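I am hoping you can look over what I have pasted underneath with an eye to the fold:
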Amino acid sequence: MSDTRFSPPATPTPSSAGPDEGGGPANTGARWPLPEEAFWSERTDPHGALPGDQPAPGTSAQPAGPAQPAGPAQPAGPAQPAGLRAVPAGPPPVDPRGVPADVRPTSPRGVPVDAQPGGAAPGEAGRVATEERPLTQAEPKTEAEPAKRKRDPFLDNVKFVLIALVVVGHSLVPTLSADSSRALYVFIYTFHMPLFVLISGYLSRNFWNSNAKTNKLVDTFLVPYVIVEVGYAALRFSLGQKWSLTIIDPAWLNWYLLALLFWRLSTPVWKRMKYPVPVAIAIYLFAGFSQISGDFSMDRFFGLLPFFVIGLVMQPEHFELLNRRWIKIVSVFTVIGAAAVAIYIAPRAPLDPFYFKHSFQDMDLSWYMGLGLRTGLLVCSLAMCFAVLALVPRSETWFSDLGTRTLYCYLLHGIPVLIAKEMGWLEFPWLHGPLGVLAISSSCFALAIILCLPETRTVFKWVLEPRLVWLYRRPSRS
């Protein structure tokens, strides 16, 4: 009489074995110290059966073991425990994976247990393996969940530096008649928005892999865009200007929301290309031949497209390359040289090229002069972007937390800046000089800190980051 309480231990079939015979979920099963669904789902359980179909530990409802072949009468064996059924003679039973149950029990290494040293009996080996299997299956379920990945302070440091420069650049506009203000303005606009777009591209690499991030296309872009457009139209009207509201033509700083929306919508296209960066640069250069309107920020979309695509293809190791000592030294000289060039060209240089949106015709340039200007500006901007990335601190700083709320600073700083412009607070004569540049920069730096505080987010979160959970369908569970 065969021992019908126990079945041979389940082992992977030769067809399911992977290239790595020594390890991996396919060969080690539930004995991996990982959550059970980390590498397989319920439909691909390593033991060939759904978790709900497996008997609970300690019960006798196991699949029947190998039956003795029919033949001469066997010697009488020990009495069978009560409550167990005998297996009738006939074809060998088949387990849920379709493997005949009369195969010789094997150890986890694939060696028959009756051939192992020690001469263990097949029934005993099957009993031991079957009794231990429920214990090993329970291990992954008790494994603690992995700790949440810590936020990288480096990118937050970069974002805060850039958002402070955005506020400074917008506040310098009324004083651009002074050479000192104009030089700082040219220096800032050479790299601050290109680097912002590059960081946005880098953070969009896995954007479409998450339903929550996809929902942000509406929560963080479309809804705030409409609210900010209406808010700034009402603010201008209250300051004595004519009421003007054109949703398709973003006003002032609101262009970035629409441009980033379309950049992220185009992400799957760029990730499918073999050579996305050369294609983006070609589009950027030839866009200068067309007078692209500002509707839906299309002029900025094409003008800053290379920076987004470059950020999209960058990997963490590329940022690590910028952390070398000799690159930091070169970056210092790059920033100093760029500042010197800005001071030199500020009195005579036009500002239109630094907005990355005007056509060759708008700037009164021939086609070859326009292509040369756009190429040179792209090279200079990238050099400054990488220099700033190399020099910004990588460790936790006092402004790292402020860099997590740059959206609030970007969308809200226009209110005090617009009021200061309309009230004439930025047109005092003493502001048109180096001392005025220092005063404006310091004030804008303090304003950026205030608008990035957690208290500011608490007050304006319901407007700028609305939770529209009711608007979306829940993802289906397969």
Observations:
- Confidence is low (pLDDT under 50) at residues 1-73, 76-87, 115-138.
- The chain has 18 helices and no strands.
- Residues 15 and 26 are 11 Å apart (CA to CA).
